[in-house]
TrEMBL record:
Annotated Amino acid transporter transmembrane domain residues: 77-189, 259-516
Family: Belongs to the amino acid/polyamine transporter 2 family. SLC38A9 subfamily.
PANTHER family: AMINO ACID TRANSPORTER (PTHR22950), NEUTRAL AMINO ACID TRANSPORTER 9 (PTHR22950:SF244)
Topology class, membrane: Multi-pass membrane protein
Transmembrane segments: 79-99, 105-125, 158-178, 249-265, 277-298, 318-340, 352-373, 398-418, 438-459, 465-488, 500-520
Gene responsible for this protein: Slc38a9
Subcellular location: Late endosome membrane; Lysosome membrane
Sorted UniProt keywords: Amino-acid transport, Disulfide bond, Endosome, Glycoprotein, Lysosome, Membrane, Metal-binding, Sodium, Transmembrane, Transmembrane helix, Transport
GO molecular function: L-amino acid transmembrane transporter activity; metal ion binding
Pfam families: Aa_trans
Protein name: Neutral amino acid transporter 9
A GO cellular-component term linked to this record: lysosomal membrane
Length: 521
């Protein structure tokens, strides 16, 4: 046998070995997410026959399947890795970014988006490197909660579970509030169209075909169905519809009949097939924002520290409300290791992660800045920008109607997956089984659904919910644990220096201040 042939055979054997190793790692990772009797996440079909297909489950509200080309050995190209990270991070926070910029001030908000992107990227980099700094132990199948358990014992295990549940349940509550909103506006649009009812909202707004409204200005009126009938139809039937189709009093309860049965399914893998709609929804929102801005124009006036009737100052003391939202918007820290471990070229992980963060920050910045800048002031004040910027467009706006339909369907398919992840993490921890009985699962789901209904009924403020949950879970996974683990690793290696110590203590301080500020402002 020629030496060149021997080398060729050895190379082929090495490729097969690498492929099997990658496959086993993926199978092991999925098997740790569920019970042995539940096949939802155990060696799914895409792992064995087709290494170019991969599911990604994120506690933030994204679960999707990527069908792309790899190098043929179970690894993804950098382009696919970047897209997966971008798609996982892009969530409901994008709807609150314009409101956050308004709270912080235009210049301050823009700066804080950039700074929070850089800070969370650095902490994410520390998460990725944390596993590599553990000596003499095979950590190839570990995620960040496993690293926390290694360094902090049972406290790290249970605290990481607690903060992970905060992010999951927080996302599910936000979803319930938004689904109630989107379902209400969709039903209202369809009813008015079918019955040929022409209505106008009892709220200040602009005139013309691209109408923008200010719901918060109608605080003296009921906040839901604020309409005056102009023509057509039986007023009695319309009033009856308004009574039974109310955004906060009835619609959140209607969702229970739709979603509670889905939550009790043993396997939610069917719903993952539809979550490409998450990408479609984000792309459509960018398109909607661009079209609206083109029609509305730019309305900016720079008042650095004092506002006026129509504009807010460039710098406001309420900026922590934006940083709380951004903490969740850039939050991927408890699953980033899994996303990067299938990258074809591991030496490019830092570069690919940085590019993904840049694209996420660019998307948030584009949507937030364009909505804020194009908001028609005058005649409306910038203070009218809602926590969900789609609420600034009336229910009969066609483009907003399409956006709400996309988002409603996407959220209804993601919600059961989030409930499944919550069930797996919590019930397996206490009972050793993700589905100990229908009673256990039903009790957990009723508690989660009850929290969503209560918030939709009494506190339907998605910006507030996002910033509280983001600052809480971010304190642990973004600021404290990555910094502490890095300092402990350096200390054990005898390499901890004063600059690193001061820098990471300051990062922990920023995370703590971010959380405290949410309750003070």
């Amino acid at each position: 046998v020629e030496p060149t042939n021997i080398v060729s055979v050895n190379d082929d054997m090495q490729r097969v070995t690498d492929e099997a190793s990658a496959m086993n790692k993926r199978i092991h990772y999925y098997s740790r997410l569920t019970s042995p009797s539940d096949r939802a996440l155990i060696a799914p079909d895409h792992v064995l026959p087709a290494p170019d297909e991969i599911y990604v489950y994120s506690p933030l509200g994204t679960a999707f399947k990527v069908d792309t080309c790899t190098d043929g050995y179970g690894k993804n190209s950098s382009l696919v890795t970047i897209f997966m990270i971008w798609n996982t991070m892009m969530g409901t926070s994008i709807l609150s970014i314009p409101w956050g910029i308004k709270q912080a001030g235009f210049t301050s908000g823009t700066i804080h988006i950039l700074l929070m992107g850089v800070l969370t990227l650095y902490c994410c980099y520390r998460v990725v490197k944390s596993r590599e700094m553990i000596p003499l132990i095979d950590t190839s199948n570990w995620e960040f909660p496993d690293v926390c358990k290694y360094y902090f014992g049972s406290f790290g295990q249970w605290s990481s579970l607690l903060f992970s549940m905060v992010s999951l349940v927080g996302a599910m509550v936000v979803y319930w509030v938004l689904m109630s909103n989107f379902l209400f506006n969709t039903g209202k649009f369809i009813y008015n169209y079918v019955h040929d009812i022409n209505v106008t909202d009892i709220v200040p707004g602009t005139n013309g075909s691209n109408k923008v409204i200010c719901p918060s200005a109608a605080s003296g009126h009921p906040p839901e169905n604020q309409n005056v009938i102009f023509s057509s139809g039986n007023t009695t039937g319309f009033e009856l519809f308004e009574k039974w189709w109310n955004k906060s009093q009835t619609v959140p309860f209607y969702l229970i009949a739709l979603l509670l049965p889905m939550l009790n399914l043993k396997s939610p893998s069917f719903f993952a097939k539809f979550n490409v709609l998450g990408t479609v929804s984000v792309v459509y929102l960018v398109f909607l924002v661009t079209v609206k801005a083109a029609h509305l124009g730019i309305h900016l006036e720079f008042n650095w520290f004092t506002g006026n009737e129509f504009f807010v100052p460039e710098f406001r003391i309420l900026f922590p409300q934006l940083t709380g939202v951004l903490t969740l918007a850039f939050f991927i820290h408890n699953c980033v290791i899994t996303l990067l471990q299938n990258n074809r070229n591991q030496e490019n992980n830092v570069r690919d992660l940085s590019i993904a963060y840049f694209l996420v920050g660019l998307t948030y910045l584009y949507v937030g800045v364009i909505i804020f800048a194009s908001f028609p002031s005058p005649p409306l004040s910038k203070e009218c920008i809602e926590q969900n910027f789609l609420d600034n467009f009336p229910s009969d706006d066609i483009m907003s109607f399409v956006a709400r339909i996309f988002l409603l369907f996407q959220m209804m398919t993601v919600y059961p997956l989030l409930g499944y992840l919550a069930r797996v993490q919590l019930l397996r921890q206490f009972f050793g089984n993700a589905y100990p009985s229908l009673f256990h699962v039903l009790a957990l789901n009723l508690a989660i659904v009850g929290a969503g209904v209560a918030m939709a009924r009494f506190y339907p403020n998605i910006g507030g919910i996002i910033r509280y949950s983001g600052a809480t879970c971010g304190l642990a996974f973004v600021f404290v644990y990555p910094s502490l683990i890095y300092m402990i690793s350096l200390h054990r290696a005898g390499q901890l220096m004063w600059p690193a110590l001061i820098t990471h203590i300051f990062i922990i301080f920023l995370g703590l201040a971010n959380l405290i500020a949410q309750f003070l402002l």
